[in-house]
């Protein structure tokens, strides 16, 4: 009898061991294969069984789940999808992007912060609903930016910030796409549409140019070079005289640095504000060489350049480029060479100057509330760094106002509002049209909005410039925020 029991126990033990091996094999080694098997549709249908929370901005619904008849109970809908696509992102059968991705666990109700709400709903018998996400976007300004940038088929990006808080008021990237097309339930249709968009490398509609593409900033970067110059000696201001040769002799190279078009810049010596108004290259190239790479890089870092950022989506890092020779430093100091910035970073520079030298951490999510509208999480403005002293910031604001009133940025003027700004025309590959840039803030006395605009090379013609092409777009955004 004991022998029989031992044999039975051994058989059970072996079978239990085999069962455990099979469970581990299925759940670990085969999990990915099984989850992607077209016959395994349980998770696929469950994805649409919960009513995801809304994404809203200023009382406007940007994304919501609409109840449907059939196999899929709730389907995502984006009422003005193309305008807000790079903010909301999409919710496809197997993936999400932008806010739909970064706040997914709140939107689909699985976040630990919603445990109490889910427990109450289970007790009361109410259906589970995801949390709502309110973003910081100003819908009117977003639409103004989209309309102004999309005119004549322009490619580029527009970012507007509240300088005092860091809240992102607009984030437009063009070309764009319709998230409704990528948020359907028919996999072949959705995947086909996604692949078509993804393969369009020339236009890159899926790329958020505002935060995930870097460009040479051109002459907009001269405000940072001016900031480093003023911080280096607090007795300096806009009237400080700086050398302004027609061509700046660069050491160890025959490729010297001229002003745009080879023009003179006021006769060889000019006030700093004049050099900024006329966007002369040679004064700022010389300032950069005189200050040195370390000082210039340190000033850039104080504006957030090179710091990792999430808004909550990840932001590509901007970079002034490696330490090279003096000739390379002169070019980097006017926003060329290896100097690469995101539009968000350039908006942060304008915002820091507008906000008495303090750069606020940019953010896109204002508030998260549960299905009963109880607040779960709310943004609190956070200072990222002090880029310059308040005295230096005041000097720079005055100089940037002069650029709009007396210099290259006259097309950014707003009646009854004092606007500060700086144009930029950034060279790209030889033989190709430049990028057109503009950064700005308004009103100068009490800034409520800071803007960065880039219009990509060739998308607005071969003669595009920051003053003629980008400044009017920024003006439209500032007017929308200020309700002018």
Average pLDDT works out at 92
Q: State the strand order across the main sheet.
A: 3-2-1-4-14-15
The portion of residues assigned to helices is 25-40%
Radius of gyration: 27 Å
Binned strand content: 15-25%
Q: Number of DSSP helices?
A: 19
Gap between N and C termini: 96 Å
Q: How is the main sheet built?
A: 6 strands, mixed
Secondary structure category: alpha+beta
Oligomer: single chain
Structure report:
This protein has 484 residues and is an alpha+beta fold. Helices cover 39% and strands 18% of the residues. The protein has 19 helices and 19 strands. It has helices spanning 2-29, 31-35, 42-46, 81-88, 98-102, 104-107, 115-124, 139-150, 179-182, 187-199, 209-212, 222-232, 272-277, 281-291, 293-302, 326-332, 343-354, 390-406, 466-482, and strands spanning 55-57, 60-67, 74-77, 132-135, 156-161, 168-174, 241-244, 247-248, 257-258, 268-271, 309-310, 314-315, 358-360, 365-369, 375-378, 383-386, 420-426, 435-442, 449-455.
Features:
484 residues, alpha+beta, 19 helices, 6-stranded mixed beta sheet, 19 strands, 5-stranded antiparallel beta sheet
Question: Can you lay out the helices and strands and say which pair or pack?
Answer:
Layout: H1 2-29, H2 31-35, H3 42-46, E1 55-57, E2 60-67, E3 74-77, H4 81-88, H5 98-102, H6 104-107, H7 115-124, E4 132-135, H8 139-150, E5 156-161, E6 168-174, H9 179-182, H10 187-199, H11 209-212, H12 222-232, E7 241-244, E8 247-248, E9 257-258, E10 268-271, H13 272-277, H14 281-291, H15 293-302, E11 309-310, E12 314-315, H16 326-332, H17 343-354, E13 358-360, E14 365-369, E15 375-378, E16 383-386, H18 390-406, E17 420-426, E18 435-442, E19 449-455, H19 466-482
Parallel strand pairs: 1-4
Antiparallel strand pairs: 1-2, 2-3, 4-14, 5-6, 5-19, 7-10, 8-9, 11-12, 13-16, 14-15, 17-18, 18-19
Helix pairs in contact: 8-19, 12-14, 12-15, 12-18, 14-16
